[in-house]
Please model this.
Amino acid sequence: MVTARRWMPGLADLRTYQRAWLPSDLLAGLSVAAIQVPTAVAYATLAGFRPETGLYASVLPVVAYAFFGSSRQLIVGPDSATCALVAATLLPLAGQDPARYLDYSVILALLVGVLSVAGGIARLGFIADFLARPILTGFLNGVGLSIIAGQLGKLFGIPLQSREFLEQIWEFGHSLASTHRLTLAVGVAVLAVLIALKRVAPKVPAPLAGVVAGGLAVFVFDLGARGVRVVGEVAAGLPPLGIPSVDPTDVRALAVGALGIALVSYCSAMLTARSFAAKNHYEIDANQDFIALGVANLAAGLSRGFVISGADSRTAVSNAVGGKSRVTGLVAAIATAGVVLFLTGPIGYVPSAALAAVLIMAGIGLIDVATLAALRRIAPFEFRLSIATTIGVLLVGVLPGILIAVALAIVKLLAFLSRPGDAILGEIPGQDGYHDIAGHADAKTVPGLIVYRFDAAPVFVNADRLKQRIRAVVADAATKPRWLLFSAEAANLLDFTGAEAIEQIRGELAAQNITFAIARSRGLFDTMLHRSGLADRIGARHRFPSVRSGVHAFLEQNQPPAAGHDMR
Model:
């Protein structure tokens, strides 16, 4: 049981399944399928596949996650952002060859699966925290705008050749005169249905209602014969399982894209999984979910699908309808398989403009204006990073946008680490321990002693700042200090450059007859302190388990000046 719960949490949960949950899970599963079928078809066209490929990606991957995932509610499947990444990766390699395109998609899904499983086994689940929310928001905003721009031609019945955002907008603007009015009428009508249902009946599967309405209009009024493009024939039956043969050179090229897609799809899935876990008061295992997402992508590849991720809209539907467990996903997968086997005929009547409307709504759903407004008000620097990420996605493409997002995340982290705060510590009336004396006129410090705290781990990006700040603190002291007690409470790490900086400061202070002492060193910081020899050079007499014990040692080893004198 322990092994099953560790590697297949879903199997362990099913053993304790409560029958009272079944009606809610059945209803929720059918509701998810009602949204999943039309969106999967739409996302397949977004990624450049035939409609049935999106349905293939909505069956076995959902089952795989239900058994391997730690979230009881997350629904996986085709996702707008992931589909945009898939298209950006495959088009330069496969071009306009549909068979090659699909073969490469299978390999890409398998690569993403392998990388994700390896990441989970290596316990790299923490990377879900790496793409900060502002940067991920900017990335998704860019993807949303790119999706909208890419669907305008289909909505207006205009054949556009451009694939880059600015070129698409330019070509669309210059081609408006050739709008196919009947196609536009169908697309706008479906878009109106989607918007109206979202506002007045949010529990109704709007994408299903929209494409059904569009399909009925095509069937009843024979709109296909009047120039309205439709999905056309959709292959029935489940796909053959297998792995295609491709050029190893292309596999290496696909691996680069797979790495970026694995990062973004995992981060996106974890945002959804964590938010619904928090709403329903349970915990998820980030490393296990990395593995689960990998297994789901392996299933997608083996079943001739494409890369999948967490689907926030379908997960939200499951939660709203009352889905209790992962049985919801299993029901949705079975219902989708039923459509693939028996109901592909009606899908052929769906107008392309209706799918464009669904995708435009999905793109709008990715754009998070509220978070941008909050960032602008609260964190201007992160607001600028978010906007820069969006611009990067729009100007250089979705896939390079990942690199921009990662680079900006690193810049943000380095900027934070390189300019940490610091404090001089003292006693504040009414508070236990030693605290930052800034802003406290009644704070007391010990004459001749500076208790200094650096609010970060001393490493290569902030080592120079540490030296500059300690020099400034010593120079600004009202009277020359005899000791500087470094509080390492905020430092959980010390690298070679940081150790060199501390040794240099220790030497400079010694030249001024100022003793360098240290308090609260622990963990990796303390390990490096001993490994580098700094612990011995500082000496056991000047290393303390707490700031208070260091202050007491100073008072014992030094005759303090007159009571009440404040060195500040």
